[in-house]
Design brief:
The complex is a heterodimer of chains A (about 325) and B (about 350). Chain A has about 325 residues and is α/β, with parallel strands linked by helices. Chain A contains 11 helices and 12 strands. Chain A has 2 domains: about 180 residues, 3-Layer(aba) Sandwich (Rossmann fold), CATH 3.40.50; about 130 residues, Response regulator (Rossmann fold, 3-Layer(aba) Sandwich), CATH 3.40.50. Chain B has a single domain, classed as ABC transporter involved in vitamin B12 uptake, BtuC (Orthogonal Bundle), CATH 1.10.3470. Chain B is built from 14 helices and 2 strands, in the order H-H-H-H-H-H-E-H-H-H-H-H-E-H-H-H. Classes of the chains: A alpha/beta (about 325), B mainly alpha (about 350).
């Protein structure tokens, strides 16, 4: 029920905005309604972007990058996403609505690739190119994917945690999701690196807490209670990493447990500055949004698009947190 | 244990029964309700012993304190939900409502820079406002509780995001705020403030439930709304009050979760309402209304967190943790039904 209300409202707003634009611009934009824009010659192409979230700052940064590219390449975009990363249905509904508007291209970050497959096929039959972004879409239909190589990034996190604990001992993982590609890749990339490079390190437990800070905190505390020998922990996204930090703070174990995290956010930056957390991997969210729109424009113009557009990642810690290279990719 | 026998004396004498059978009924109800709590409490003890045997680290004081701490937020939400469910209603807005209350505390403390106590009051007031609006729609506009609170769930979620600008609000300008949840009031004891606040709130809820008119009419409306109205009680306005009281607990939960995370997380809360309802149901409160207790809810919330923590301690995969909790809910409700059928015969 929530979805239809949400969509109808956003659609109405959108139509309202479009009508307003017509009124103001007069004869300059004969077809300002986004649905028609794709087909009207001379009008700005319309790209619908359906993200995995909206309120989280990460998605706001992606949106910012997408808007930057939209201005640069002279296209219109809409950017929307479900309330939480568990709302697969809501996202499917958004994708359906986006398709109904007949856009020139679609940017899509799937919460559940399989659930979206019928809609993706529908887009393909309508010759609407799909650009996947972030965790991507597990399908051949997207012409390209702009994303962080999560496996490689998680490997980098593993390398740093292994170094911090002297390449041996017990560690545990708080993961945000066991079904989404980003959750799985960030877990497996980490595990694979440990298995290949640090055989004396044992991953004693992996718990999933949906990226919810409170649940992640409680999960991390339970793991610490069960494994007093634990030397390090890894949180696979902002909420998971903050959960580990909270657990260590609440139990007074600072300096006894090495923590590495993923993504940024004020609490995580504070934890790194304060020495509770050793460091974290950050993606390049602005770059993800930018590259998605850039690739969509290329696809609309029938130019070649790289199948995998690697938007990069960085390791940051107390030493380089304020450097020119890292700073733009961190958000408060 | 004064909270335990609370429902019995107020089991409304509205049904046209003779004095003697009413008294007999009271005794059997009293027996039944304490038996039920005994059983719930017994299951809690059995679970604790089971996990203790599986991994002795489960019984460490720090872990037991962690279990209590992890009970607090869901427990507070469940206290409020108990009132609503005993009236025969339901409240789906407590999870996202809680987040809106957190955000309100954040607005008062971090945006307006007001003193700490005003942040606490602001959060709780927000909860009562949410509850009062729910109550108004349900009792005066006759919208079914499920629909009214479902709508409020969405409104609260949206408002939390709107007010906070979709960003978490941090309490950097109120350094003592997290102590509200995590400070240790008793030297040498690991149990933090939030746990004491929860038990104090539970005792308060128990008193309201057993010693005040609000409590009395909560049961009365739940067992027979029409009869209650016919006996001259203003059911509409009492319902409004009951939802408002329930909202205050949502508000307190919002303040406590904000203090524990030292931030108001506007995107949080969805799904917490179902955990709260589960705690209430495990505690023996009937979704049909008219029957339940605060002690049962406290035990229900403890069972939920003991299960979650215990299964984690013995490294059961997440997927199976959910299955286990689901099964416990089913078993608890089924046993409750069996018991009721027996006493009815």
């Amino acid at each position: 029920m929530s979805k239809s209300i949400y969509n109808r409202r956003s659609f109405l707003t959108l139509t309202g905005v479009a009508l307003g634009a017509v009124a103001i611009a007069g004869c300059d934009t004969p077809a300002a309604a986004p649905g028609a824009a794709a087909t009207a010659p001379g009008a700005k192409p319309y790209i619908a972007i359906v993200s995995k979230g909206f309120q989280h700052q990460f998605w706001q940064a992606v949106k910012q990058g997408a808007e930057k590219a939209a201005a640069e390449f002279n296209v219109t975009i809409t950017f929307e996403g479900p309330n939480t990363e568990a709302d697969v249905d809501q996202q499917i509904q958004m994708l359906t609505t986006a398709l109904g508007k007949n856009p020139a291209a679609i940017g899509f970050a799937a919460l559940d690739s399989k659930a979206a497959t019928p809609l993706l096929e529908q887009a393909k039959s309508k010759n609407i190119p799909i650009i996947a972004f972030d965790s991507g879409v597990d399908s051949d239909i997207p012409v390209g994917t702009a994303s962080t190589d999560n496996k490689a990034a998680a490997g980098e996190a593993a390398k740093h945690l292994a170094g911090l604990i002297g390449n041996e001992g017990s560690i545990a993982i708080i993961c945000h999701d066991q079904t989404s590609k980003s959750g799985v890749d960030r877990r497996d990339g980490f595990k694979d690196w440990i298995a290949a490079n640090a055989p004396k390190i044992k991953i004693v437990d992996i718990q999933y807490a949906g990226g919810d800070q409170l649940k992640s905190t409680d999960a991390a505390k339970a793991i610490i209670a069960a494994h007093p020998e634990l030397k390090g922990m890894y949180g696979t996204n902002e909420g998971s990493a903050i959960g580990v930090v909270n657990a260590v703070n609440e139990l007074g174990l600072k300096d006894k447990l090495a923590i590495v995290g993923f993504d940024s956010g004020k609490a995580q930056l504070d934890a790194i500055r304060g020495g509770v957390m050793a460091g974290a991997i950050t993606q390049n969210p602005v770059g993800i949004g930018y590259e998605t729109v850039k690739a969509a424009v290329a696809a609309i113009n029938k130019q070649p698009v790289k199948k995998v557009i690697n938007t990069g990642f960085y390791w940051y810690d107390a030493k380089n947190i304020d450097s020119e290279q890292i700073k733009p990719n961190l958000y408060q | 244990m004064s909270l335990v026998d609370s429902p019995a004396p107020h089991k409304p004498g509205l049904e046209p029964t003779s004095e003697t059978t009413a008294r007999k009924g009271n005794i059997s109800v009293r027996l039944r309700s304490s038996l039920q709590q005994l059983l719930a409490f017994g299951s809690l003890i059995v679970l604790v012993i089971f996990f203790g045997i599986m991994n002795s680290r489960f019984l460490l004081p720090t872990n037991l304190s962690d279990i209590l701490l992890s009970t607090v937020v869901i427990g507070l939400l469940a206290l409020g939900a108990t009132f609503v469910i005993i009236t025969g209603g339901i409240d789906l807005s407590v999870g996202t409502g809680m987040s809106l209350c957190s955000v309100m505390t954040g607005v008062v403390l971090s945006y307006l820079g007001l003193p700490l106590w005003m942040g606490v009051v602001g959060g709780i007031l927000m909860g009562t406002v949410i509850g009062a609006i729910n109550g108004f729609f349900i009792s005066f506009l006759r919208i079914p509780p499920f629909i009214a609170t479902l709508a409020m769930m969405l409104v609260a979620q949206g408002m939390a995001l709107v007010v906070s600008g979709t960003k978490p609000i941090y309490f950097t300008s109120t350094p003592g705020f997290s102590n509200l949840a995590l400070g240790k009031p008793i030297v040498g004891l690991v149990v933090p403030n939030a746990v004491f606040i929860f038990f104090a709130a539970a005792i308060l809820a128990g008193i309201v439930m057993s010693k005040t008119l609000i409590g009395r009419y909560t049961f009365s409306i739940g067992s027979n709304e029409e009869a209650t109205a016919l006996s001259g009680i203003n059911v509409r306005s009492w319902k409004l009050w009951i939802y408002t009281v329930a909202g205050a607990f949502t508000g307190l939960a919002g303040v406590i979760i904000a203090a524990r995370l030292n931030s108001a997380q506007p995107g949080q809360g969805l799904g917490y309402e179902l955990q709260a309802i589960a705690a209430v149901v495990i505690g023996g409160t009937s979704l049909a209304g008219g029957k339940g207790s605060i002690v049962g809810t406290v035990i229900g919330a403890l069972i939920m967190s003991v299960l979650t923590n215990g299964l984690r301690i013995i490294s059961v995969p997440q997927e199976w943790q959910n299955v286990a909790i689901g099964v416990v809910i089913l078993v608890a409700v089924y046993l409750d039904m069996l018991r009721r059928k027996e006493t009815a015969q």
